[in-house]
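Quick start: read one record
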Amino acid sequence: MNSILIALKGMAMGIAETIPGVSGGTIAFITGVYEKLLESIKAFTPSLIGTWKKEGFKAVWTKINGGFLVSLLGGMVIGIGIGLVAVEKLLESYPPVVWAFFFGLIIASIIYVGKQITKWSLGPIVALIIGIVVAFGITLLPIGQVNESLWFVFICGAIAVSALILPGISGSFILLLMGMYSYLLHDTLKEDLLTNHESGALITMIVFGLGMIIGLVTMARFLSWSLKEHKNVTLAILTGFMIGALNKLWPWQIPLKVMDVDDNILDFTKGMEYEKVITSSSSSPANYLENFGQPEFLIPAITFFVLGVVLVLGLDKFSFKKEK
C-alpha cells in the first residue's frame, strides 16, 4: 500500500512536470517526499561500487532506498504520459479552470513551506526577496530558438532537471525558455521515438537523459546540504520561488505569442487559431472574457482554486495528525 501511495505522488510530480509553469519539486514538497528524494539521489556516488563488491546488491539497494525510488520514478513516468495526453487536452479546452487549480495548489504550498521557517531573521528575508525576483524574472524571459546539437540537448537536460527539484521553478518551463520544450517532449519523444521509433530520436533522448542524471545528482547534493546547514534560508528562497512563479500560473492569461500547426511562433491576435500558447500575460477575468468570450469558466475556476488550496492544506493536516 505504501508503494502505491508513493507511486501516486510520483504520478502527480510527472503530470506537473509536463505543464510549463508547474513544478514537480513543489508537488514533492507538499506530498512529503522532497527530502527523502534528495537523500536517495545523493546516495548515487562512486562509493556504491565498493559497497556492491563488499556487501552485495542488497546493501546498495538499501543505501539508495531502491523501493522508494522505483515506486516514485515509475509513477513519474506514468504521470508524464498522462500529462502529455490528458492534461494537455484539458488545458486546450478549459485553460482557466486548470490554471486556477494549480494556482490554488501553489498558494497553499507557499503557506505550507513558509510556516516551516522557524525564525525570520535578515538572512531568510533577503533569501525570500531573491527567490521572488528570480522566479518572477524567469516568467518574463523571451523564448529561445531550437538548437538540435547534442551538447545543447545535454545542457537542457541538466538545467531542466535542476529546476524540476526546485519548488516553484518548472523544468518544462525552463525547456520552453530554451526553445526546446516542443522539440524534445513532442517532436522527439512523442512523435519520432514513441510513434515512429526512429533511432536518431533515441540517441537524442539518451543524451537528454544523461544530462538529467548529472544535473539531478549535482543539484540534489547541494540542496540536501543546504537544507541541513541553512534550513531557514533555503526554505525562504524556495518560498520566494513559488511566490514569483504565481505570475505564470494566474488563471486568466492572454496569449502574447502562440505556435501554429506548422510550429511557427506568431504574435497573438484576437480570434486567431493556434496550436499552443508560448508566452502570455496575466489579465483580469473581464479582459479574458473580451478576448475569448467564455464566461462559463469563472465559477469552475473559483471552485477548482478552492479545491487546490483545500487539497494541499488537507494533506498537511493529515500528515500532522499522522506524525502525532
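The chain has a mean pLDDT of 80.
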